[in-house]
Amino acid sequence: MKKFLAKLALGLAVLGFTGAVLAQAASEPVAAAAVMEAASAAVEAAADAASAAEVAAPAPVPNKGDTAWMMVSTLLVILMTVPGLALFYGGLVRAKNMLSVLMQVMVTFSMIVVLWAVYGYSLAFTEGNAFIGGFDRLFLNGVWDNAAGTFANAATFSKGVYIPEIVFAAFQATFAGITCCLIVGAFAERIKFSAVLMFMVIWFTFSYAPIAHMVWFWMGPDAYASADVAEAMTSKAGLLWQWGALDFAGGTVVHINAAVAGIVGAFMIGKRVGYGKEAFTPHSLTLTMVGASLLWVGWFGFNAGSALEANGFAALGFINTLFATAAAVLAWCVGEALMKGKASMLGAASGAVAGLVAITPAAGNVGILGGIMIGFLAGFACLWGVNGLKKLLGADDSLDVFGVHGVGGILGALLTGVFNSPNLGGPSAVADWVTVGMIAPDAYSIASQVWIQAKAVMLTVVWSAVVSVIAFKIVDLVIGLRVTEEEEREGLDISSHGETAYHK
User: Domains along the chain?
Assistant: First the structure.
């Protein structure tokens, strides 16, 4: 409004000046040419002033509410990792290996967060090609704009809405950290601590960062200014984004990616000493329950925070995380009671994680009934994953990483394509980012979207498997993968860290 009034006043002034000049020209014909030239110059000056005002328009200011929500979400993801995942895993191993698991989770998370700042964020979330980003944000260079004296902005999913890029970078750092930490559960109780860290560096660089780029990198909604540039903008996005794969919070990037790395590690490192002959019972289901509860609480930041705004889609992700997880707990307990005659605390905690995993890609992409269905089906599917599938594979997946995160992640990714349909209560997907128009109910094809989801799953499985095999082989050749039999029998707390979780 202020800009309009300024232009109006400027225009009236020009008209007044021109009128006066023309009157003078009528009384003094000799000076008419000079008078008209002065009037023309005044009009051009007015136009230049208006253009300058447009150029000097202030940069978008991040919404304080969205920024605050994303900072809280980042803290929640840290909570679900350290201590949530650490305690969940720690309670499941034998007492002599408790601290080793806590160490592997905490140190891995810390290392990956640092690597994310150094180069991971740049590889995942800057423009490069369809598979990997570039080096524009090494050491987070450029998140502070020296010329403008302000912080750089990061796009959300709404036109004209931004958050500070440093907040987005921090949020995504926690995703990278927890993904790597999930893997350690597959080969707990027998791997060298140094081997864990070396493997994580390689796998993070060549599997996590590329998959994150392929699934989540795009140019942002404001880049789609018109239909003329839409195709060019899409061609700059990650490969799976170009395909139209839906992954709200990390079904492919986090869970399937980590689960495949875990099962590869379980095969390549080998079974624990005494596996199949000795009882490997969890030493503290109380701590496992505490860890599962912290995971559930923290997962609200993981899923709802992935909306990048405090809006309706964040609320949808929030409520789906609540309902789907509860449905999975009930399903697992029912299935376990039918199989074994009793429902267990371990089963309830595992069911909660199964529901959280399965709803992750769907959280903001499906309706409430769809979310409940995904959670309920995940409870039964993951129960089979840690029993029937585990026996079929024959690997010693210590803490059932593939049975829960692999099976749950794949199921959730595929069912996202089903329940995203507006005909089944889903919000649908964006058909045109220029207008931010959604796919109409009569135009939505469940079969087509499920096929896209399946391709995304297959690419993630193959990519992570290949990188994992190579990474484990390199680590084995350089420092060796597992501890000696004597060290394993003694327990990794003492043999690897020189301390014990419990004093007798």
Answer: 64-497 (1.10.3430.10)
